Amino acid sequence: MKNTKAIIAGTMVLAASTLLAACGSNSAKAADTTSTSTWTTMVGDGIQSMDPSVALDLVSGQVLTDTTETLLRYDGAVLKEGVATSVPTATNNGLTYTYHLRHSKWANGEAVTAKDFVYGWQRTVDPATKSQYNYLYSGIKNADAIMAGKKDPSTLGVKATDDYTLVVTLEHAIPYFNTMQANPVFAPQNQKFVEAQGSKYGHSASAYLSNGPYILKDWSGTGDSWTEVKNTNYWDAKDVHIKTLKTRVVKDSQTALNLYNTGKLDDAVLSGQQAAQAKTNKDYDPLKVSYIQYLQLNEKKVPAFKNTKIRQAISMAIDRQQFIKKVLNDGSMPASVVTPVGLFANPDKPSEDFATESTKTTKAVTTYNKKKAATLFAEGLKEVGESKLSITLLTSDTSADKSLGQYLQNALEQNLPGLTVAIQSVPDKAALTKSQNGDFDITVSGWFADFPDPINYLNLFTTGADGNNGSWSNAAYDKAVKLSETTDANNATKRYQDLLTAQTILNQDAGVIPLYQQVQSHLVNAKVSGLNYGANNMYNYVGAKVK
């Protein structure tokens, strides 16, 4: 998910007030507030939207995961049934998925049916909804044409053959299709409720209807705290043991530590000095997440960046270990590849990690080597007919990104004679906009995995892709990615080799420059058990317990 998905370092008028009143009343009855079993966590920002079609940020994504039941749900690395009674196998040469749904309810007591999924999916791909996350629907029959305004949403390849059978038709095989079904963007939506809310839908707790483990409370659309209470109408309510989830926004690491030490937080996320000191705490619990931070070099704005030697030189001039130790201090890992370690494995050799395998012949490109970097940079400048290069590094204005910018500025200027680096730090949203518009020389980018497959990352950097803000292009790379999605989509062995080929090309060519894989420093109250972090970068509270 974007860090809003932060590319820079994972949204209609009241028509029936009587219906709203009924829905609100039934939702309240479904909420279990009788227990003192509570878990209190922190986030860095507030909820942006509870509309599953338009929510884009990680905070909203987690709350939607808590309060929404999609077809499938991740429990750690295991993909399990959600509203669907099982994880189906594709038929029709990978083009058809049939989901058999259990009898479950919305928080207001109404039945969740296949028609709710059809409505929700059609609404998400409808250009009028302005979803920025609907690209995950690409490959479903007619989805691309609908999103381009060329076909009606009703032509989307999803059909309710009866109340509890959902049939999805694809235009081409998507071997990871099931893994995407844990994402809230594929959630069912209650048409009657959505249309009654109109433009208010998803903008407050009362304007959102849950079918998941929890019901959102105490959120008016703004604010720095909210509560989620157990949904007694949830189909698996017997396995929801933590009755209340409380969340508050905490932006400062020292404040987070103080709140944890005084018992006001059960899970504190630390950075910098507090993270370094926390490593000796008995409650220290590092969390490796599928998030990579990397640099994009704008080849359109700075033609010299088209030179492979210059790109490789910039990569080799960065001491990632030193940066993590001196700046992050949070246990993060140096990244040699833009796909996270632990995300994906060889289908024929499960012990073989994709990211690790892809760097066997390209590790030198991301290994700090001051002498080699200077040599390559000089050679590259000569090849492009320049004697020096002045560039600007774009970052967000957070303290973490400013520190990163200063470190990169010093490292690049010291290790690459002839290079001058200025820093432009702007607010997150402005940095994201400038990055997407190509208004930068070098920019700091980041990506959280939506589902556990390398295509999450590799699709970002094909020629002309929306995520390819630096305009890097390589025909062999594009061919390998395309083969993985077409000719070899149903052959796991060949597809793995295609993805490996693409990743190796991206590594060697320094199409983007990976910096680190995030490992968050947490202090976690030992009274919790069974709380799993999923392959989709979300916590699953079903099955978790508090002593």
UniProtKB/TrEMBL annotation:
CDD domains (UniProt xref): PBP2_OppA
Keywords, sorted A to Z: Signal, Transport
SUPFAM superfamilies in alphabetical order: Periplasmic binding protein-like II (SSF53850)
Record-annotated Solute-binding protein family domain positions: 80-468
Subcellular location per the Swiss-Prot or TrEMBL entry: Cell envelope
Keyword match Signal: yes
Matches recorded under InterPro entries: Peptide/Ni-bd (IPR030678), SBP_5 (IPR039424), SBP_5_dom (IPR000914)
UniProt family annotation: Belongs to the bacterial solute-binding protein 5 family.
Protein name (database record): Peptide ABC transporter substrate-binding protein
Protein species of origin: Lacticaseibacillus mingshuiensis
Lineage of source species: Bacteria, Bacillati, Bacillota, Bacilli, Lactobacillales
